[in-house]
Amino acid sequence: MSISRKARARAGRFTATIVAIAAGPLAAGPATAQTASSDTALTEIIVTGSRIRSPDATSVSPISTVNGEELQQRGVTRVEDLINTLPQAYADQGAGNRGGTVGASGTATINLRNLGNQRTLVLIDGRRLMQGDPDRTAAQAPDINNVPAALIERIDVVTGGASAVYGSDALAGVVNFVLKKDFDGVQVDTTNGFYSHTNNNPIRAVSAAAKQAYPGGATFDGPQNDVSITAGKNFAGGRGNITGFFSYRHAVGVRTSDRDFSICGLSAGASGYSCSLSSATYPAQFQPLNPTTGAARGTYTLDGTTGNTLRTYKTSDGFNNGPTYDLQSPDQRYNLDLFGHYEYAPGHQVYGEFMFMRDEADIRLSPTAVFSVAEKVNCNNPYLSAQEVSVFCTTAGLTSAQTANVVVSERDVQAGSRHDYTTHTAYRGVLGAKGDISDDWQYDVYAQYGRTNYDSRLTGDISLSNFANALQAVTNSSGQIVCKTGAAGCVPINIFAIGGITPAALGYVQQDFYRTGFTQEVVASGAVTGQLSALTSPLAHSPLGVAFGTEYRRESIGLTPDSHYSSKDVAGNSGGEFPISGAFDVKELFAEVTAPLVQDRPFFHSLSLNAGARYSDYSTAGDTTAYKAGGEWAPDTDIRFRGSFQRAVRAPNLVELYGPQQITTANLTDPCEGAHPTASLAACQASGVTVTQYGNIAPAAGQKSGAMIGGNPGLKPEESNTVSFGTQITPSFLPGVTLTADYFDIDVKKLISTVPATIELSQCIATGTFCNLVVRNPTTGSLVTSGYVVTTYINAGYLDTSGVDFSLSAKYDVADLIGVNGLGRVGLNFSGTFTDKYEIQVLPNTPSYRCEGYFGVTCGMPIPKWRHRMVVDWTLPDGVDLMATWRYIGGTRNDKSSSAVYLAGAYQPYDATLPSVSYLDLGVSLALTDDISLRMGVNNVFDKDPPVTASTGGQVSNGAFYSGIYDALGRYVFTNVSARF
Questions:
Q1: What is the rounded distance in angstroms from the CA atom of residue 304 to the CA atom of residue 752?
Q2: What is the Cα gyration radius of the chain?
Q3: For residue 514, what are the β-bridge partners?
């Protein structure tokens, strides 16, 4: 049976690869309609950020588009490495994260506008990608390791609220990975790369007395290998297609000890930076306590000259954990994907997707430590020297038959780094149908299931209970040193002499610890799009376009730590890990309308309005409404003005809601403690102190007070207002050139965050506000032993960022520029972002502070006022393509140089700034045959080191520098071969 031309045209809308590049940064030009085949009409376009189909669709929001070809041209094996080069994106989770303070999770996430990865919605072909990790220490964000890099046709980035179209989480924007369709044949892609770096950073000069040498000379390390096979087949006369994809990626780790700029954590002194590279034998520290008052009687460490006597502890004895992490984590990943669609009747199609991903990461952590743990040390311990017995026992009036209370800190350097072997196994399936209801109306319904399973095995950490057992040693009747407690399998440990820990003792105190968990998402969605021909403006020829539909989504989470975690027995996680279990569902209705008002009239080439709304009913957070309104006006074909307002919402995620609440310690000085409090009686009474308790609150040991952390089921959704307006210029006298400039302002209210205990307590004492977050011990009035400051997730202040995005794209035949034929085409794509404001208010009614142009302990990663990316390519007629990329990151200042409250502080002049940095990337592509292409290139050609600082505060950093925003490994050399059969 033959299919009519009109039916084939309708079917083409669904079988053709739809390319919609809406003008914006990195866009090649204005959106244009693409032909589905030689005998079909122009297909309708769907622009990311809208559900409405239109033959001349454009976007009222700026969209950045990156072609999938650039992944191969840059030798990218990790998609986040490409995303992070965009000026709108900030470094986030990825293989470059270390453990410890940064909290590496083995996932890869996206952070637009530095609003947090939980506020960036990730889509695959317009449908949600599920959450990637159930661990409470990792943000609940999609893991883009699920995205098959070789199948990416393009990446659309819409910054600003998009909740009216796509739902929750789109406060910062949307990243939509559009995959290739209708693949026919077999293609093999291989990418191989490595880092080439010369260690000659000036930081080497700051530690002439280092106890271990810096790495020196040229290095070649960190190889990455990726191989993928794509096989597809069209069938039934082109009405159906099935495509399979498999890829394997492997990355070899690079240690922080392999780079001179990362081997130590810097500290700032009066004369410059200092860096102490600790020896392999790092002695324990001890604080013997008064047996009556519990007060510390000094702080000691082992004397290196004797090995088994004590001397007073000095700050310079601190441990350097710089060389104990990875700059690039060892990792291997498998992707297996299957896509298919079939037109079972003219204009009606069923489609399905199955995606599988397994990522295995080795997250290296610093050697574990028992930090400030009160232990029992028996005075007749045979490992104690006479001098140690005197310090611990005799001077405190204890006999050999008694036990001393000693606060112990012991770094397990002898055992080396810990390893968190983390595996994420993800499944995602989609089954749907779409087609034509009539000539003007289409439908799309689908069901989607996604699940990520999480497994963690931590090795090399210490069981605190085993450590306590092993610490108390006695000599038995046979003259053997054994554990006093008689615990099964116990081997006594000697931390009282340098080098005294035996392998057997180490084997007893160290254990493997396990966590398992999952995140799960179920989506059912249906939408109808179409045109209301009866509602066509008398001044326009295109009718009113509408889209409406409904969606149901359920998300659930589970995390099960083993008994060691839940009993706070893991030394490296002494606060404990506790089970997480929870779920929420949401029912939604959405609608969108586009109204062409004037078309093809003098001074009104086009004038149109766009509006949309989404109503959501959450089982946890209640009702929310997101909406948008915008418009565009093109006086002629050379210039277009656009603007929009969008109200976006983000419901609290599962960890923010259900993360287990627990009381841990915080570095907090209570102004109401001690015999002579620094705060007045009235101020202390506001914080919960009684008249009787005032002046009688015992100081917290080591200024370690209590803080409650965890989730908060009472959280309300965040709300954001996004205002954007700008212009696009395509001058007819410069064909092939597109310029855009767009202003944005994203203001997030009711910000879901945690607030430092120091700020909450200080605000209570100073202003009497937020005192409900201070819970004192009812008997003693202290902030320890059932006293604490609540630092769980709350709806706090606001975060407001604004600026301007610029872009320029151009493409010309060389002959048109210089009059010489046969030299191909040249193209330029430039995108830059000026950040005018990045303002944070921690709590309502408190002073705000601004971080644009700053970095540091409070602001975190650098937020330069200007970033840009410029790509120049030259395509020759004989299949040779040359490409150069200039990446620029503006300079920033130490946030302590600001006069803002919460920022201002002391800092060293040489630590005042991070300089601007430029990177140059070069690549060449060769068409060896019609079916085989070779790409080669070098990123960071000049092997630039990241700028270093002593003022990172451990936040989003790899020690003395910020990873992700700056290249952390040096020059990257790669080759890529693609063969089509």
A1: 49
A2: 31
A3: 457
